[in-house]
Specification:
Helix 1 links the parallel strand 1 and strand 2. It is globular, with a radius of gyration of 19 Å. The longest helix is centred in the N-terminal third of the chain and has 21 residues. The chain is an alpha/beta fold. Helix 2 runs parallel beside helix 4 and helix 4 runs parallel beside helix 5.
Length: 327
């Protein structure tokens, strides 16, 4: 297949390019490099641009015979979305509509969409399956849920088939050390913990140690980024075979606390990590764990890297490599 990967220079997008390459698909990377990194792009065909530029996007489709699109390009910081909802609605929703309209114009009717567990809001039960009510509590989650609604409407009106994958906590890095997580600034727990282990930061803040969990800290479902990309490849194959539109939750199925992450990182790295206790953050659910049985059953998805130690080991390897191997 020839696949357009929007946001392909980002964390998950760069891993997706590798996954497509490993499966001998032809990938075209499209990214505005606002948060992505050109050096993480493995494919030869890279186009710098923005989905807001509908003329450019239309020209790209006119010059390429795409079979499908994998859509990662979005703003994704919950806190920022609360203070800049305009930025999130414009980039995530309006620009996605530009993409979908151009796809329809050029008769490209298959898309795998990067959604999020943030569409669910505060969980009513654990683990969270696809039937869980959707009640997002921030503009980021609302923007992704609105896109899911948009995709459903485009399916009815234009026969555009989609698979929306609701990630829980993507983590880890390519096992070969070919790409990994690099956010500026970094906001994700595992790379922050590893930066504290490597000495790039002095400590790691734990927001809330009085939750009703085993050790008092929040519990999250960490899914290895390569396993996540495998789910995207399976979704593309599903659509290529004429499959109907689907919505799947993607997680490891296991919950790990913040303190679990810190202790495991200390074992993996051999370094002590200084932690600072801080009050709870508003809007942080106590436990978020996915029920991913539906995609396992329907698409045969089997995550390969489920152990927290493996996820952190791969992320640590990237932390070392991305800093010149000097740690």
């Amino acid at each position: 297949m020839k696949v357009l990967v929007t946001g392909g220079a980002g964390y998950i997008g760069s891993h997706m390019l590798r996954a497509l390459q490993d499966q001998n698909h032809d990938a075209v990377c499209f990214d505005n490099l606002s948060t992505g990194h050109r050096d993480l792009v493995c494919c030869d065909n890279f186009i710098e641009g923005d989905l807001a530029d509908r003329t450019l996007v239309s020209d790209i489709f006119a010059n390429n015979n795409f079979d499908a699109v994998v859509h990662f390009a979005a703003h994704s910081q919950v806190g920022e979305s609360i203070i800049r909802p305009d930025k999130y609605y414009r980039n995530n929703i309006t620009n996605t509509q530009n993409l979908l309209d151009v796809m329809i114009d050029h008769d490209v009717k298959k898309i795998v969409f990067s959604s999020t567990a943030a569409i669910f809001g505060n969980p009513q039960y654990i683990p969270i399956n696809e039937d869980h009510p959707c009640d997002p509590i921030n503009p980021y989650g609302r923007s992704k849920l609105l896109i899911e609604h948009m995709l459903a409407d485009y399916d009815v009106a234009y026969d555009l088939k989609s698979v929306a994958l609701r990630y829980f906590n993507a983590a880890g890095a390519d096992a070969r050390g070919l790409t990994g997580e690099r956010h500026i600034p970094e906001t994700h727990l595992i790379p922050l913990v590893l930066q504290a282990a490597s000495g790039r930061r002095k400590d790691i803040t734990i927001f809330g140690s009085d939750y009703s969990t085993v050790d008092g800290t929040c519990v999250r479902d960490f899914i290895h980024v390569s396993d996540l990309c495998d789910a995207h490849v399976l979704s593309l194959n599903w659509l290529e075979k004429g499959g109907s539109s689907k919505r799947y939750n993607l997680g490891n199925g296991n919950g790990f606390s913040v303190k679990d992450v810190v202790k495991t990182a200390e074992r993996v790295t051999g370094n002590s990590i200084v932690t600072i206790d801080s009050p709870r953050r508003a809007g942080d659910p106590e436990i978020l764990v996915a029920d991913s049985e539906l995609i396992r059953k329907e698409l045969g998805w089997i995550p390969k890297h489920t152990a927290l130690e493996t996820i952190i080991s791969h992320a640590w390897q990237w932390e070392i490599l991305d800093n010149g191997g000097n740690l």
